[in-house]
Design brief:
Largest sheet: 7 strands, mixed
Helix content: under 10%
Distance between the termini: 40 Å
Strand content: over 45%
C-alpha cells in the first residue's frame, strides 16, 4: 500500500534551516507529482511546494518562494524540502503528499504521511 514517512522536523531559531525528507513506498514514485503541505494550529492545510514526476518542474506557495527548495530522488524514492531562512510563521506540521497523478490537477485521492513538526522560534 501507499506509504510515506516524513523525517527531519524539529525546533530551530528564526533564520535557521531544516531539511525534511519523505521516504515513499508501495507505488511507482517516479510516475507521480509529489508535494509538501503544512498545517499550522487553527489553520487549514496548505500546499507548500510540488515537484513533477521527473523533477523538472517545481511550484511553490508565494510565502516560501526563494527560501524553500523541493527536490526528489526517484532512484531512492525520496522527496526532500530544504527550508532556509525560516520564520516563526513557518511553524506547522509538514506532510508529504501524492495524488498518484502525473499531472498537476487537483482532483483525486490524497495520500499522506504522518507528518513532521517544524517549530521556528523568534
Amino acid at each position: 500500500q501507499v506509504q510515506m514517512v516524513e523525517s527531519g522536523g524539529g525546533l530551530v531559531q528564526a533564520g535557521g534551516s531544516l531539511r525534511l525528507s519523505c521516504a515513499a513506498s508501495g507505488f511507482t514514485v517516479s510516475m507521480y507529482v509529489m508535494s509538501w503541505y503544512r498545517q499550522a494550529p487553527g489553520k487549514e492545510r496548505e500546499l507548500v511546494a510540488g515537484i513533477s514526476s521527473g523533477g523538472r518542474t517545481t511550484k511553490y506557495v508565494n510565502s516560501v518562494k526563494g527560501r524553500f527548495t523541493i527536490s526528489r530522488d526517484n532512484g531512492k524514492k525520496t522527496v526532500s524540502l530544504q527550508m532556509n531562512r525560516l520564520k516563526p510563521e513557518d511553524t506547522a506540521v509538514y506532510y508529504c503528499n501524492t495524488k498518484l497523478r502525473g499531472d498537476w490537477a487537483t482532483g483525486g485521492t490524497d495520500y499522506w504521511g504522518q507528518g513532521t513538526q517544524v517549530t521556528v522560534s523568534s
